[in-house]
Amino acid sequence: MSEQDPEANTKVNALYTIFEKHLYDFEDNEESEHAFVDKIVHDYLRHLVAKNIAVPRRWHAHIVEELRDQVRKMMVKKMYGCLSIEEFVMGQTDRPARRKASKKKYSKLY
């Protein structure tokens, strides 16, 4: 087994960390799934800019669509058995603890 650099692990998990933060902070029952996914993608792109990672303009639309697809897959895996984001959030018995943990991980990204 090889040891991994903890910072490299954070880089790999940045999209998931941002996804979890938004999921556990979710409170707007009127927000559509599409809008929810777009907020996560926008936040991730801001994270890339903060880390001085450039996204070429000609690839921007393709990258955004790929990120949307990845976030949708994360939602399906995370919410397995729930029909909506609201149902998932309401079913969380330890939501405050998960919310706090996700905020802590999120704060380490910036």
3D structure, described in words:
This protein has 110 residues and is mainly α. It has one domain (6-107). Helices cover 71% and strands 0% of the residues. The chain has six helices and no strands. The termini are far apart.
Short summary:
This protein has 110 residues and is mostly helical. The chain is built from six helices and no strands.
Biggest β-sheet strands, sense, barrel: none
Low-confidence sequence ranges: 1-8
What percent of residues are in strands? under 5%
Question: Structural class of the secondary elements?
Answer: mainly alpha
Number of strands: 0
Helical run tally:
6
Query: What gross morphology would you assign?
Result: globular
Radius of gyration: 15 Å
Average pLDDT confidence is 84
Helicity level: over 70%
Distance between the termini: 30 Å
Question: Could you say how many structural domains there are in total?
Answer: 1
Order of helices and strands: HHHHHH
Topology record:
Blueprint lengths: L5 H7 L1 H12 L7 H18 L6 H22 L6 H6 L4 H13 L3
Helix pairs in contact: 2-3, 2-6, 3-4
List the keywords.
mainly alpha
